[in-house]
Amino acid sequence: MEISFVLTTLDRIYPELPLHRLATTPFRTLIATMLSQRARDEQIIPVAKRLFTAAETPKAFLSLSDRKLQIIIRPAGKYRQNAKRIKEICRILLEKYGGEVPDSEEALLSLPGVGRKTANIVLSHSFGRDAIAVDIHVHRITNRLGWVRTKTPEETERALQKIIPKRYWRMVNRVFVRHGQTICTPQSPFCLRCPVFRSCRRVGVRKQR
After folding, report:
1. What is the pLDDT of residues 87-107, one digit of tens each?
2. Which one from 66, 84, 135, 151 is the annotated catalytic residue?
3. 11 labelled catalytic
4. Residue 110 burial (CB count, 10 A)
5. For 33-57, how does the pLDDT look when each residue is reduced to its tens digit (9 = 90+)?
6. Which end of the chain has fewer CB atoms < 10 Å from its terminal CB, N or C?
């Protein structure tokens, strides 16, 4: 009951992630999620807009020069590494999947630079699959709430799958990412402004606002 209350409450407050408005295809979702791993939405959204204006498909991405791709994605960080991985992924998608993003976890995880979080976001957002995408926000907040006691995102994903009803899996990443960026921050969270304050055990919180 507590889990349902928390998730439905946050779902009303955070109906969507701004980045998801640009993630209108599985390919866009894959690339945008990869680039967002070390950056906030306000950094990634302008980058994604410029990137998808310059190229929309794996074939179009491969036609971009390495330098142009690096310049476009530079604000997202690790631009040389990300540019290389993006082109590697595009080659694989063209060679193995006819230019389409595969809809299986195994195939997604075989792509360079794609981890469980990215794979699960693609599966849930683009293919409507029930999946829990665990990033640093989901990991931190669910431990803080007292739902899990885990040390890694992988452990958190497995633990959450056991306690969260499947109908809520797809929203977990969205609501906790937004909540973690605005209220349930890593240091000194804004507990007095939190809409689910009474449902939180505040595990590990030493200072709050």
Report:
1. 999 999 999 999 999 999 999
2. 135
3. no
4. 13
5. 999 887 777 888 999 999 999 999 9
6. N
Task: Could you list the residues known to form a binding site for [4Fe-4S] cluster, using ranges.
Answer: 184, 191, 194, 200
Please pick, among 117, 130, 162, 207, the residue that the annotation labels catalytic: 117
Contacts of residue 31, defined as CB under 8 A and 6 or more positions apart, other chains included, come to 48, 51, 86, 89
pTM attached to this predicted model: 0.92
20: closest CA among 182, 174, 185?
174
Question: CA separation (Å) from 47 to 19, 178, 197?
Answer: 11, 19, 35
Give the integer Cα–Cα distance in Å for 33 and 48.
Answer: 10
Render pLDDT for 104-114 as a digit per residue (tens, 0 to 9).
999 999 999 99
Spell out the residues 6+ positions from residue 78 whose beta carbon is closer than 8 angstroms to its own: 38
Q: What are the structural domains, with CATH classification, of the chain?
A: 2-15+132-199 (1.10.1670.10), 18-127 (1.10.340.30)
State the Cα–Cα distance between residues 51 and 206, nearest whole angstrom. Answer: 41
